Amino acid sequence: MAHFSLFAHTKDLEHKIDDLMNKIIDISMVFKKAVRLFLKEKRSNDYRKLSKEIKIIEHDADVLRRDIENSLYEHNLIPAFRGDVLELVESLDKVLNEFDEVAHQFYLENPDIPSVYHEDMKELVSQVCACAENLAMGARAFFRDFSAVRDYSEKVYFYEKQSDKTTAKLKQIIFESDLELAHKLQLRSFLSEVADIADLAEDCVDKLLIYVIKRDI
Amino acid sequence: MMELTYLFFLSSGLFLGFSLGANDVSNIFGAAVGSKLIKFKAAALIATIFVIIGAVYGGGATTRSLTQLGQVNALAGAFMVALSAALSVYFMAKTGLTTSTSQAIVGGIIGWNLYAGHKTDLSILFQIATGWILCPILSAVLAVLLYFMLKNLFHKIKLHVLMQDQILRMALVCVGAFCTYALGANNIANVMGVFTYCVHVPSVHVWIFHFSGLQILFLLGGIAISFGIWTYSQKTMETIGQSLMKMSPFVAFVVILSEALALFVFSSETLQNILGSLHLPSLPLVPVSSTQAVIGAILGIALLKGGRGVNWSITGRIVMGWVTTPLMSLIICFISLFFLENVFQLQVFLP
Question: In this complex, do B162 and A10 lie within 8 Å of one another by their Cβ atoms?
């Protein structure tokens, strides 16, 4: 009986970790939608709703993360492995936080983004979101199928590089434009914040690959 | 008074049992205790139960091989054989050579044979030495096969890593129990084997169980091993556990399972009979070194992974141990028997 409850506990923890991956995919999709809406309507009521939705997902993910961390300690995992899972969960949480922060910043500062940059901005957001979504799939694969982690991490690296290029291109165009310096600086700050999501996803994937090497029996 | 004399002379064998419990059992439960899967007390309890069952029910075959090598027929002589084995293991361990009580006790018995003027059966000696050489090799082969098969299985069924971890940790406890059983069955001969011809214990009937005199003697040896487990193995388990965990829980599991199977193959009469009935070659039922079985398994897996970072000097130390441990024990035993007989006026052999 004790063994069954032990396995039930493991199953429960498995579900919680899976849920955390779902939250990353959810937040990424809502974020993509929110930025597109912002470019169209700026700080509208609908954007506020999406921004709130992002906040709720981030909050739920925080609760889930704390729950996972507690369960990991109660679960009596092999200490080295427990450390790796804890670090992974915390790194994933940083990505989730960044999504929330950027969305909130859009709402607070309500920046004026000239329409000439909209297409590139959408492109950047798509690349950043692809990074996060592939990270979530890679992290999920870490728990079930090590060989797939490498495939997803390759995609994360690819999209991160693309996002770097898009960011650099946009920054250059912005600073070559006739906008006010303060406006240029504000837009640069936004671009950097968005690109940071991809950077955080890349850091997370780096760690993931090390865990795979450590765990590959 | 008679019992006290018996107990005094048995003390050297009991000391061997004590050191077996303190050292060899740590290899087995190190991974489980070091990773805090089970508490030391639980591990010690499981080890105690299974080592005693192994000794009492499975210790007969290896003991017969040892007694075929030399039938030590005087209590003082048996005391000296076991003591010289214990001393040589202690000295060899100090020099850093890989050694085992199995090799030391054989040296002691040959020393006694030489002193008593008994002929040593070279074919039995050859059988025993073959066992020592084959044990780490067999353990390495088993480790490679198990590693390969189980790794493929785990990859195929794509279990969640958490579930894998949970199953492995439980498997570590189960395989630990099996391994302590095999250790008791294989190595009790080193602890009590030399006393079988000079200590006569009456058989006992408890409820539906019948224990022969030999089994009572083995029970005593098993209790000595358990004493070693409870008093000295905790620290070693924690140290070994941490170094074992560096190889991943899966490898630790394969290493312990290979050790258990190697020890079991060298002590199970039933398995020998099955192999015989299938016309398959069987291995000699002789006491072997559990530490060398562990080293064999680790080397096997290291070679499978490309052999990087393998410390080859350890294999040299094992081979050196096969020769130097019995030789040292033989010399200590021969000289000490002389003193025991001529200075302490004790009868060390019956003509």
Answer: yes
